[in-house]
Amino acid sequence: AAVVTFLTALVVNTVRISTALRMRQVHLETGWFNRNQLHRFEGIFIYFGFLLLSYVLSERMRIGDASSSETASTLTVKTSGERPTSTLFRRAGFPLLIYYATTLGLPLAISVYRAGTLTAEFWEHSLFVLITPLLLILPLATFRCYRIHRARRNA
């Protein structure tokens, strides 16, 4: 697990750095975001995206291991009646909670310890951190709902 974690961190940081370097060469800027905000958005998108992807993959591996045992059939029966969107948001909630705790909770805890360290830049960063992961989850939820609706209609 430690080797996989290290290699995953190496891949994620490589993607993050290479993407940031590429964005710097392109001189990408929009009317909504300046260069620093785009850099922040890209970082949040990559880090949270990889966190969500690794969580989904580990859950699939765990469920795959559990389905081979006899006790897994009871787990499947219990969750089969759940709505797909609630399941997706519940599954995405755990990595989202970890991401928020790391990117917002730790700086807030440090600011309590060191009075007066919260700046306007931190609050702008917090807004990006709160909204960007939700923007990543929303299309996934929409796609999943569409797929399930289509499958039910065709059945």
Protein traits:
155 residues, mainly alpha
Describe it.
- Helix content is 85%, strand content 0%.
- The chain is mostly helical.
- Helix 1 runs antiparallel to helix 2.
Low-confidence stretches: 70-80
Indicate the radius of gyration in whole angstroms: 19 Å
Report the total helices.
5
Backbone shape: globular
* Overall strand count: 0
- Mean pLDDT metric: 79
Task: Furnish the topology, listing elements before pairings.
Blueprint: H1 2-26, H2 35-67, H3 72-79, H4 84-113, H5 120-154
Helix pairs in contact: 1-2, 2-4, 2-5, 4-5
What is the compact description of this entry?
The chain is mainly α and 155 residues long. It has helices at residues 2-26, 35-67, 72-79, 84-113, 120-154.
